[in-house]
Amino acid sequence: MTRIAFIGGGNMARSLIGGLIKTGVAAANLRVAEPLAQAREALGREFGISTYADNRQAAADTDVLVLAVKPQVMPAMHAELRDTLQRNRPLLISIAAGVRIDQLERWFGNLLPIVRCMPNTPALIGAGATGLCANLRVTPQQREQAQHILDAVGVTRWIHDESQMDTVTALSGSGPAYFFAIVEALEDAAVAQGMPRDTARILATQTCLGAGRMLVESNEAPSVLRQRVTSPNGTTQAALESFAADQLPRVVARAVAAATRRGAEMAASLDKD
Ligand SMILES: NC(=O)C1=CN([C@@H]2O[C@H](COP(=O)(O)OP(=O)(O)OC[C@H]3O[C@@H](n4cnc5c(N)ncnc54)[C@H](O)[C@@H]3O)[C@@H](O)[C@H]2O)C=CC1
Ligand SMILES: O=C(O)[C@@H]1CCC=N1
Which of 45, 149, 211, 260 has the highest local Cβ count within 10 Å? Predict the structure, then answer.
């Protein structure tokens, strides 16, 4: 069985570990390094996996090492982990936003097979969306291992051109927040018309869930589903015409471009490390 170690036991690691255990991976094949004692205890209790305060101990003798720490922590980890990784050469999987494969190679060694991933927070409930990108040292079997880990928490797609990983980050990585922002705005709009907030929230939230499920389950294009709601000269048409007048596609495209730029800037800021 493949042994998988996590460095960092925060939200994303927790969701991946939970997803893997649900898919039948034995707890004995999973371990995690986490500096916070309380978080370590919770991970051990909840999942029955081994926990470590020392990253090197967790990284020793593993087949796959998942780096699940914040991007800014990443450069400092190389002093700690490089030797262990050079000895074992496990598959290195990074989920850090805005950290490029060439940077990971520079910090941890360019002989390592590396997969860069961008998951998102719905992974916490098994409804994640992840883009994955591999360097040339990743074998077909390791690609399957990486995909298996991320498939445990949602859908996955391989991205062949790494420069598009910033687009993945801007689309699906940050994307859940865009929908939350729209639900907030819908709720506020209804409250402004006099609706009690709890009623506005449940109606807006359930509408988001219903629309999301229809998108996933109906296999229809979003434009077809949109047209089905839109009666000629009806209420939806009035709202959509207002969106068009306010240039909604342009607003969204500008937001995605801003997030994409920020991802590249985050990577560039790590170039000096
Ligand atoms: N939250 C999100 O929407 C997404 C986050 N990501 C990426 O996932 C990574 C983890 O994010 P979260 O789980 O949300 O963060 P988090 O803050 O919940 O987890 C990070 C964990 O790393 C631990 N840690 C800090 N320094 C460490 C060190 N030196 N060695 C080992 N562990 C250390 C922290 O104690 C914490 O438990 C980040 O790189 C982020 O960019 C990726 C996609 C989406
Ligand atoms: O906002 C961020 O930078 C991270 C990456 C994707 C979601 N959260």
Answer: 149
Neighbours of 125 (CB within 10 A): 12
69 CA from centroid of ligand 1 (Å) = 4
The reply to whether 186 and 159 lie within a common domain is no
Q: Which two tokens stand for residue 205?
A: 């939230």
pLDDT, tens digit (0-9, with 9 covering 90-100), for 126-171: 999 999 999 999 999 999 999 999 999 999 999 999 999 999 999 9
pTM for the model stands at 0.93
270 within a domain of the structure (yes/no): no
Shortest-distance Cα residue to atom 3 of ligand 2: 97
Distance, CA 70 to ligand 1 centroid (Å)?
4
Q: Which ligand is nearest to the CA of 131?
A: 1
Tokens of 168: 């993945």
The predicted pLDDT at position 271 comes to: 87
Write down the pLDDT at residue 124.
86
Nearest to 68 by CA among 111, 20, 110: 20
| Residue 87 Cα to ligand 2 middle (Å) | 32
b/e code 183-193 from CB counts within 10 Å (16+ = b): beebbeebeee
Determine the structural domain holding residue 255 and report its residue range: 175-265
Instruction: Kindly list the protein residues whose Cβ atom lies closer than 6 A to any atom of ligand 1.
Output: 7-13, 33-36, 39, 55, 68-71, 73, 95-97, 118-121, 173
